[in-house]
């Protein structure tokens, strides 16, 4: 939409950026790697960046649509139980059986923080960009995120012990505080401006979201280039592991939920494989070992590249658009 007044230029610039879709997500990753000094400068603001991303996501939640989907709760409850309970339990058992827990505790910490995290708040938007069922992703995202302050401390106690600098109780309180604070801020914004205004200014909000994502990506990717030059085999190994975990979660979820339809199964698979590791970073205030940081950095590659890599596959799976419960109005329409 056209803008006028003193904020017209920045709003138009944000709108242009927001309309770039998956291209902007890839560009954010490349720019973050290319300018390491900027990452060092922005690293102290990771917690604030994650908080703003959460606020934007909560601000866009359509409560009426969530209520409509809760009338058919079985699929949502199953997907919530899978992503919040089964995934961290299976990952924890796998790292224990394979010796990762005892042999490489920093990597074990990274995998467990990834597994116990809720899905990324951007999952519904990414699902929409790929033409998948964003409504199902959103409702499952909300329910699983609400449970994380309870489930994450439990699995931290069972599988991490003293590996994590925070106590499980402190981790749960910090997660609850961050999520509750973001929810309150988002609610106040919606009360002040209305959901219609949020939808009307979708493009500049998307652009602002990408800017905040750049802050997070720059901070977490600050040392990637230097470490890639210094220890290329180590970095390659972490990257391969990050992609393996991503596709393992994606494929297993699609297999488990195949009976609900291939398109919905892939939407849930994308949600489960895109873990909100930034939330765990914010909760731990970045107090994690170097290898854990590097694994988190390598995990950004499948996260940022997935929409581009998997979009052709999603197009082959996609069914004709459904008009049940007004699904198509939930989030931004797919944009290339």
TrEMBL record:
The keyword Phosphoprotein does not apply. Gene3D superfamilies: 1.20.1530.20. The keyword rRNA-binding does not apply. It comes from the Bacteria. Keywords: Membrane, Transmembrane, Transmembrane helix. The chain crosses the membrane at residues 21-39, 75-95, 107-129, 136-160, 175-198, 210-230, 236-257, 278-298. InterPro entries: Na+/solute_symporter_sf. This is Na+-dependent transporter.
């Amino acid at each position: 939409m056209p803008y006028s007044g003193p904020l017209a230029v920045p709003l138009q610039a944000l709108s242009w950026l927001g309309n770039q879709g998956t291209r902007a997500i890839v560009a954010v990753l490349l720019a973050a790697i290319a300018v390491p000094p900027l990452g060092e400068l922005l690293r102290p603001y990771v917690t604030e960046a994650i908080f703003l991303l959460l606020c934007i996501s909560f601000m866009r939640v359509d409560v009426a649509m969530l209520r409509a989907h809760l009338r058919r709760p079985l699929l949502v409850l199953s997907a919530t139980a899978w992503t919040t309970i089964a995934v961290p339990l299976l990952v924890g058992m796998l790292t224990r059986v394979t010796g990762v827990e005892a042999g490489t505790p920093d990597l074990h910490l990274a995998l467990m923080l990834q597994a116990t995290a809720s899905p990324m708040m951007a999952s519904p938007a990414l699902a929409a960009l790929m033409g998948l069922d964003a409504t199902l992703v959103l409702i499952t995202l909300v329910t699983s995120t609400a449970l994380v302050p309870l489930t994450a401390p439990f699995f931290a106690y069972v599988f991490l012990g003293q590996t994590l600098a925070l106590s499980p109780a402190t981790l749960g309180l910090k997660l609850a505080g961050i999520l509750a604070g973001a929810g309150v801020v988002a609610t106040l914004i919606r009360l002040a401006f209305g959901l219609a205004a949020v939808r009307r200014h979708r493009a500049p909000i998307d652009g602002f979201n990408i800017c905040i994502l750049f802050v997070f990506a720059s901070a977490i990717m600050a040392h990637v280039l230097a470490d890639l030059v210094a220890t290329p085999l180590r970095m390659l190994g972490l990257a391969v592991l990050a992609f393996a975990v991503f596709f393992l979660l994606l494929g297993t979820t699609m297999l488990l939920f195949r009976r609900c339809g291939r398109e919905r199964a892939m939407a849930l698979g994308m949600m489960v494989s895109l873990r909100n590791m930034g939330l765990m970073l914010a909760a731990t205030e970045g107090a994690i070992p170097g290898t854990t940081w590097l694994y988190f950095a390598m995990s950004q590659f499948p996260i940022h590249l997935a929409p581009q890599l998997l979009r052709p596959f999603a197009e082959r799976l996609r069914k004709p658009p459904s008009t049940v419960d007004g699904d198509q109005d939930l989030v931004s329409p797919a944009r290339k």
